Amino acid sequence: MDSQASKQYFLDLQTRLIAAFEGADGGSFRHDPWQRPAGGGGISRILEGGELFERGGVGFSHVHGDRLPPSASAHRPELAGRAWEAMGVSLVLHPRNPYIPTVHMNVRMFRATGVGEPDVVWFGGGMDLTPYYGFEEDARHFHRVCRDTLNPFGEQYYPRFKRWCDDYFFLKHRNEARGIGGIFFDDFSELGEEGSFALTRAVGDSFLAAYLPIVERRRELPFGPRERDWQAYRRGRYVEFNLVWDRGTLFGLQSGGRTESILMSMPPLAQWRYDYQPEAGSPEAGLLTDFLPHRDWL
After folding, report:
1. Catalytic one among 62, 75, 104, 141?
2. Is 74 a residue whose pLDDT tops 70?
3. For 173-213, what is each residue's pLDDT tens digit?
4. Residue 217 labeled ligand binder
5. What is the pLDDT of residues 96-135, one digit of tens each?
6. Cα(232)–Cα(106) distance, integer angstroms
7. CB–CB of 238/267 below 8 Å?
8. Cβ(265)–Cβ(104) under 8 Å?
9. Read out DSSP for 19-56?
10. Which residue among 58, 95, 213, 233 has its CA within the 20 to 30 Å range from the CA of 68?
11. Exposure of 112 in the CB half-sphere (CA atoms within 13 A)
């Protein structure tokens, strides 16, 4: 598979996503190209203070190096020491309205090369939803799109990637899910290079259909200080996961990536309170009891 064609897909995906988000928000994403001294670079697109999205980032990166960083070779120790190339698109959107969930999506390709050895190529990605207030309709819609996206490649993939997502986006130190999940896959190559990339593209291409209908359903709901306070508290969990457990964050920092681009997924405002528990029977408590525990949404 031609690396240039793969790169063009990811660049086109970033462009399509930005156009959709700017259309929904009315604001413009900042265009911030960057170069990595150790090899490669990317384009960070960031929106702050938008009417709809309080903060949103859509990043493209294409980086390479002489030796795989530990986070990339942890599950493939036989590749330690090889040269590598990685490219992909990653996004996080933090809406202003607490009734609209935060969302994350990424799709990526990784290639390890060695003198006299065949290239080893694998893919990863997925999308997951992090609501502050639970709506069954939204959760089912998001998971339905994920399932329908993967079913053409095999009906085993949605339940498998859903479990993977549930297990991955989990704050072990709190014994708590980050959100209601979605799909997640990593180190994926079992459909061959072309087939695995086709599945990865399908995930990227289906994101807008999974998320924007939820945005449109919730964007006009009125909210006040109580909802914003809860949103900021739950955003603290998002920060904890990204800084403690996320492999993408670790890879970016270990590989000498651009810190501003790696951490543009952080929410603009977050807060922590010691041993806080929402009032029993409240909508805030319902998120914890009815939505965050792993369940079958379909």
Report:
1. 104
2. no
3. 999 999 999 999 999 999 999 999 999 999 999 999 999 99
4. no
5. 999 999 999 999 999 888 766 788 899 999 999 999 999 9
6. 24
7. yes
8. yes
9. HHHHHHH-S--EEEEEE-TTSEEEEEEEEES-SSEEEE
10. 58
11. 18
